[in-house]
Amino acid sequence: MAKINLRPWREELRAEKQKQFVVMIVGAAIVAAGLVFLWKSDMDRRIAYQQSRNAYIETATKKLDAQAKEIEDLKRRRDELLARMKVIQDLQGKRPVIVRVFDELVRTLPDGLYYTDLKKAGDKISIVGMAESNNRISELMRSFERSDWFSEPSLSNVSAADKSRAGYSQFNLSVMQKTPEPQGEDAK
């Protein structure tokens, strides 16, 4: 007897291939979804890591900015203090000068002569005084020339005094103050 296959084997084969195709498509979709999920989670992890690094850098930058500002404030305060110290040192250094200037004014003063008015403007000292004679005024000017504290004496006016000071001449003199060089132990 002959065996004849009347079953629709072509349709069954097509249906079987179609089922295999669908299973493969679904499997590929699942694998692709899994890969996409893994890729997305890796990217999210990397983004979170980078954001944490950025946040750390921002906080460190803010701290450094605050420290830099504090350093600038300290430098400014230091400069102000140094300026104040310099002013104080200058004042301390000049404080005994006026005493020495007055002492030198007395030392250079010859007999028969006295001062009636002294004015100081910068390094220039204007002197108004009374003298018994013009020779005394000349002697005063020579004393100023020899002095370590004065230079450039300039006589501007000599006139007869009023009746209450008969025999005296009034004079106007200006002299420049100079600071002598320190010498040995006396410089301290």
Automatic annotation (TrEMBL):
Transmembrane segments: 21-39
Keyword Membrane: yes
Keywords: Coiled coil, Membrane, Transmembrane, Transmembrane helix
InterPro entries listed in its UniProt record: Extracell_DNA_Util/SecSys_Comp, PilN
Pfam families named in the record: PilN
Gene Ontology annotations of biological process type: type IV pilus assembly; type IV pilus-dependent motility
Keyword Membrane listed: yes
Coiled coil feature spans: 57-91
PANTHER family reported in the protein's UniProt record: DNA UTILIZATION PROTEIN HOFN (PTHR40278), TYPE IV PILUS INNER MEMBRANE COMPONENT PILN (PTHR40278:SF2)
Stated name of the protein: Pilus assembly protein PilN
Organism per entry: Marinobacter lutaoensis
Lineage of the organism: Bacteria, Pseudomonadati, Pseudomonadota, Gammaproteobacteria, Pseudomonadales
